[in-house]
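FAQ: What does the model actually see?

It sees only this:
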Amino acid sequence: MNAQVIKPITILMADDDPDDQLMAKEAFEENRMANHLVFVNDGEQLMQYLRHEKGYNKDNAPKPGLILLDLNMPKKDGRSALKEIKSDPELKRIPVVILTTSKSEEDIIKSYDLGVSSFISKPVSFNELIEVTREIGRYWFGIVALPSYEK
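And it is asked to produce this:
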């Protein structure tokens, strides 16, 4: 079997809560994940990042291999951003994982209807978040095959 060199990918997290961003960063570091974790604060900024608008470009905003998306954000919520991502031919293949406080059955169903890859309710404790990020890393970067975005 040939050894495959796995290049770390960019994980783009859209979440308006600075505490949640910090905890996610620390949880990924705790799991020693080599992926580059980038944060945006709302769905509007997420779409600007993905479309290379308003100061974002290919150099400072590489196409993510995975998006972690909160549903409840200002300006443009995660539901609207997810709908835009999955209806855009250039973006629709990027896996999107909902990571939100919502446990609403309606949010779960709507998210899957819009094309989300997974729906995860945010854990309450930091230790639980460490475990969730470990499992995200194990699944998305150790098991599944992701499309390459290099041209």
